[in-house]
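Lecture notes, unit on protein representations.

Consider one protein chain, 294 amino acids long.
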Amino acid sequence: MAHIDDPETQRANLIYIKAAMREPLLARDHEQDLARRWRDDRDEASLHELVRSYTRLVVATASRFRNYGLPLGDLVQEGNVGLMQAASRFEPEREVRFSTYAAWWIRSAMQDYILRNWSIVRTGTTAAQKSLFFNLRRLRAKIEESPSATSLTHDGRRRIAEALNVDESEVQSMEMRLAAADQSLNSPVGEGDDEWQDFLSDHRPSPEEVVIGMRDSRMRSRWLAEALGELSPRERTIIAERRLRDDGATLEELGRVLGVSKERVRQLESRAMNKLRTSMLRRVQDREELLPDA
């Protein structure tokens, strides 16, 4: 539903729009001269004249996005930010009219603002989702046979997916997202005292499971330290460098340090791992106690 401003805000917006529409259009040569003076000499008067002349473009673009339920004044403000960004990046030598170049920056600034503020749930995080958000309604109006239909048909989703080069699942997901309004988890369910959040399952470990996991982790660490103590100094070095580091050393590197071949290092590592396994198994009744729960 479109946002409705209070009367005072409406009057302020109308004054701004009328002022924007009264700004004279710029000739191509004068436009490029202003752009050069701003870029080369940082002439603020030239920047102001260039920007004011195209505030009408901001207003026209904002009017096309009014149906997203956001204040017109905010859309214009964001569009003016895009217009300023365009002015700072415009290159007159490319022989492109400033209005053509600025239109993309203005539209992009408004679209980003809409995606940030349309819902408290983040929307349009990927290029495909952004394209769907701004084009789904338009394409649906073109292809839907029944205006009263509550959802797209399979064929309709397929045609939209092909038109926007996205997956059908993304079309269905965005369709559901646009059809459902935000709702607080504290909203009541029915006439009782229950709230929506009361029906959400909590998959986190219980306090008891957390304490048991911490105890088991300490126990396994102690067993491992005791098992490592049964290895020879050379075997402990190999296990520490190969197994207990994020960037484990190679067999060749350890061979150079220990003065043996890399094949000998592999043999020593295999023997040390067997010793560790045997030592750890002596300390437990159930082998599953050696591993954390999946």
